[in-house]
Amino acid sequence: MRQKKSPEDLKLRKALENMRYKSCTKEDIIFLRSRVASDRTGHPHLDSVVFRDVSVITAWNVHKDTINQLGAERFATDTGQELVEFFSVDRLSPKSLEPTGRWKNLDQAHLKRISPTLQNQLWKAAPSTTSEHVAGCLKLCVGMPVMIKANEATELCITKGQEAIVRGWNEVIAPHGKRVLETLFVELIKPPRPVQIADLPLNVVPLPRSTTTMTTLLRDDSVLSIARDQVLVLPNFSMTDYGAQGKSRSCNVVHLNNCKNHMGYYVCLSRGTEAATTAIIQGFEEKVITGGLSGHMRQEFRELEMLDEITRLKEANELPPSVTGIYRGQLLSSFRKWRKGEPDPTHFHPAIRYNTRLDKGFQFQTEYDTWKATRIEDGDTIGKKRKKSGSANKPSKKTKLGTAPYDMEVEPKQLTINNPKPPGSFNGCNEMPVGLVWDSVNWSCSYDSIFTPLGHLWRHDRETWGPILTRLHPLWSVWCEFMASDGDQPEIARNNVRRLLTWADPIKFPLGPTRVALDNLLNAVANPDAAGKAIVYCEQCNHREPGEIEIISMLLVAYRITALDRECGGRVTLSQWIMRHLDGVIRQRCSNCNFNRTRRRTVTFKVPPVLIISVQMYGELLLDGELTFLANGTEETLRLAGITYFSPQAQHFTSITATPDGSLWYHDGITTRRRCNLVGNINTINKEELQKRGDYIVGCAIYVKKLV
């Protein structure tokens, strides 16, 4: 923390320390309320000279753009100047970019040229309507504060986020008849080191116009890929909390209303170096910074403090040789054994100290020779239910699916990894998936059969598949969050997702020794948004029956097509079924022309990143290793990622996980537990072997996009 030592600064330091752990006290709230901008005595006044031209930290880019626009107009008026408009040079990108982020599910606009009307709209649009936040029209004047938005030359301190002041520019008239910047000269504010360029004053650097390929949002909610030529700067009268990270500000003005959580509040307020020059606009929500951390975050902070304590004792030669370990769990386990239940050090924040009611005492026990890792909760054993206390296990009255409290099940039952070999050395394959241990109290096999294949995707490429799974459904967002905090205990993520489903519908998702129907689970975790639609029309008169439009999602239910069975002699593959399903014929008489001809079913389909095909109604369907779709004139390939099997006799689910190299790994939460057994390769195994394993039949198949 960068605050000084005045009484007010000490109050700000204390409030920030408590805010970090979401545990602000009444005294902290009273102090923070005193920093809300107002005309009352003792409160900061935004019309003060101290806060003039100070960049406001806010959460949303749309608010940042509006504040920048108003700030630029006010700055020009105050300095007696006129704003000069510099327009970009836009052209269609030769390659369409895939929309990402909040525009992921929007349609791509395909245009042959940018019309004058559209060009004017692109110039008027705010920078936040583009994926790279590049302004279509820059309004500048000499002396205006700006922020550099790209790493142009790191050796010259021209980096993204660097603040500067406009000192001059070179301009030309473009073919569209507007003024266009060639070079913008800016003076860097407090660069890491002095920058001297020949024939320029100290810390004055040139910023040339550059080309940025990006997507932009149009008025009809479609996105367009364009290449924009513009100097990569923006007015600096506002910045987002994301862009403010790492900055120290002598005057700190913040807008907290739309910050997502207490961490956003902390980032904004901790940028300031003095309480007297800190101002909060429009107040804040107390509940965001009070109430305490969720279980997994509290445990993470405590473990980090313990690691710091281990480092301090090691440096002081006060740590015995018994405290050692290759991995964090091993090191913390040996440290706790050495301390023998002693209370946490007093310098630990009260919000993260050991709490009997909340934590039940974590212990780590690791045996290196058998690669076993056990996390035991005091008083709990396998198959023993946790005692209920008060309302701790009851959902809140207004709990919505995907938004329930995250402090659900941080401590699992006793779980064991039984891998005779270290992960990564099994039969020469270095991608052995990690399975989930079956819960014998609340049967979990249907969940295990889904989360094991998708969990391997997340482990194999977390940076790519984490955001993809998060966007699919709120439940996957919860699952990814718990996997990120407790990846070595995937049962925690599974159990908390299961609790959300049980709270939402206890009939379909019961607890106890009963199985959850696979169809119910697939419908719950699949994104209901449309991936396509099917339309049936007459081949003779093109008549379409009212209401005969089918919405297609990422979950397909395979049903038997008798004609296809006859054509293929009973050996129908999944790719053949999908081809017929997406564009097939229906032999019915048309109600419009009464002509006894076939009606055709055509589908407009946008291939989702994850496609689940339920084949319980068509168990004889042969699975393919890859599925290829023709979308927008290009081929998109999905590979097999997992298969779920079900035994009607045993009332039990198992699964096979297919890794990117084609290896097939069998998992049964009862017998193999965390281990997965290599059973073959998708390129060499017979399709009949995948169709049935003993008395287990295929329940569903999971296909994912080949992203590399």
From TrEMBL:
Chain intervals with Basic residues compositional bias: 384-400
Residue span of region Disordered: 382-402
Protein name listed in UniProt: Uncharacterized protein
